[in-house]
Amino acid sequence: MNFVQSAPWPFKVVLLFLFLYKPIKFGMNVEPEACLHAVALYMMVSCLPSLVYSVRNRQETTKYIQMSALIMMNANLLYFFLRSREEVNGCLGLALMFVCVHTLVAQREAMRKQSSILLLSNMYSHTHVVATFAVLVSASMIDNSINASNLHTSICILGAVFSGEILGTIAYLNYIFFKTIGDAWEGLWV
């Protein structure tokens, strides 16, 4: 399970278009953190049967669950960081949407490559597609206050486009760090 690989560019272009131009008009607004928490809840629900029941390869399943939890933890840290900074607050929703799409696409790719990584992974692979399109549609319902003519905002948008890959790299480094510490701790007692 590697969150470092980029999500397909058509998803990124569609998400950026839906977020900035809002061609689909809905009568309600969605808060970006609501979408992030919905994706996190969906990921916990999809991992729950594999935590309780036996799986074919426990080591790969544990890595998948740990990486998923770490990227969601990093996404929440990004949310709190961007929420506290007034100058980049406008890119908050866009960055969270890119993280959600990146995470769902990376998880689906992992389930497609290793069909036994989760229990019911074939079903979850299809529901990840539905969840990805739900995130894309919700991007057009988020109220944005981005002025794209500003250079600072353009840099912020560029950072938001790659926020999924950045958080995926940080999550992978976190995973390696925790795995190394855990193996060293286990080595002390064996």
Distance between the termini: 28 Å
Report the strand count: 0
Order of helices and strands, N to C? HHHHHHH
What is the residue-averaged pLDDT?
82
How many domains, in number, for the residues?
1
Low-confidence stretches: none
Largest sheet: none
Q: Fraction of residues in helices?
A: over 70%
User: Nearest-angstrom radius of gyration?
Assistant: 17 Å
Number of helices: 7
Broad shape? globular
Report the β-strand fraction as a percent range: under 5%
Give the class from helix and strand content and strand pairing.
mainly alpha
Describe, in short, the structure shown:
This protein has 190 residues and is mainly alpha-helical.
Structural commentary:
- The chain has helices at 9-21, 32-52, 58-84, 92-113, 121-139, 151-161, 163-189.
- The chain contains seven helices and no strands.
- Helix 2 runs antiparallel to helix 3 and helix 3 runs antiparallel to helix 4.
- The chain is globular.
- The chain has one domain (32-184).
- The chain has 190 residues and is mostly helical.
- The longest helix is centred in the middle third of the chain and has 27 residues, at 58-84.
- Helices cover 74% and strands 0% of the residues.
